[in-house]
Model the fold of this input.
Amino acid sequence: MSLKDRAKATAKNIEGKVQEAIGDLTGDPQAQAEGKAKQAEAQIRHTVEDVKDGMDDVRDASIEGRTKATAKNIEGKLQEGIGNLTGDHQAQAHGKAKQAEATVRHMVEDVKEDISKKSD
Done:
């Protein structure tokens, strides 16, 4: 989020409201229209900042998702290794399942990143 850009948008909105009010007081339709246009521009600027914030959230979520996937993969490898050492076939299977889950999670993050890149 750019606080500077949000401040500019808010200033533009206030400027537009003042200009519209002056147009209302003086009966000047051009001032009214210009004031409304500035307010609309401010709203668009705020929307752009909202989208940027959303993209930042997506990126943060992707990092978190990849971290969880990596942790799940390590957990699965350890569990499978313990199963191999002890001969516990159930532990081996659970370990492999966790590794598979981690692979799927990474694939989901790949898709999210592809979508994010295409929307930039």
Summary: DSSP finds three helices and no strands in the chain.
